[in-house]
Design goal:
By secondary structure, this protein is an alpha+beta fold. The chain is 16% helix and 35% strand. The chain has two helices and ten strands; from the N terminus they run αββββββββββα. The strands form three sheets. The protein has a five-stranded antiparallel beta sheet with strand order 1-2-9-4-7. Strands 6-5-8 form a three-stranded antiparallel beta sheet, covered by helices on one side. The protein has a two-stranded antiparallel sheet with strand order 3-10. It starts with 7 loop residues before the first helix and ends with a helix. The mean pLDDT is 93.
Amino acid sequence: MSFKVIAADFLNELASRAGQSPRKRQHHNIHDSFDDPCQKLLNAVGTDSYIRPHRHALDPKDECLFAAKGLFALVVFSDQGEASHVERFGTEKYFGENTVVSLGVELKAGTWHTVLALEPGSVLLELKAGPFDPDAAKEFAPWAPEEGTEEAENYLSWLKSLV
């Protein structure tokens, strides 16, 4: 087939699988291969999912994040781990006169960041230049706790307080 359909029921199914996953996330590659010149994926993220702050500096490529469904917050950090910016982004459902919500964000390679899902069932569309090298995909922030630790739970609570 010369096209792929990404329907609402598929996003709902992806979000449901994320809810059953230990990490409260579930991704689905839209691209066919790690060698594709454009890496495209959907990433369902639960509201209790901790994505350890990281940057893409080992294989420096800019990254675009759009809300396919729901509402998110991007948190950007300094090299020392201080939160320097919070950007809420989501679908048009969350646009309004009293809220500041963007549609998406573009991150320059090397920017320390994390993303929080602010609504259940939220799904990201992530775009990055290929090819993809899984061994150089992310550099985790040394000042942020590892996933699955008690410190990570406390850190996630702190991140949520920034939003």
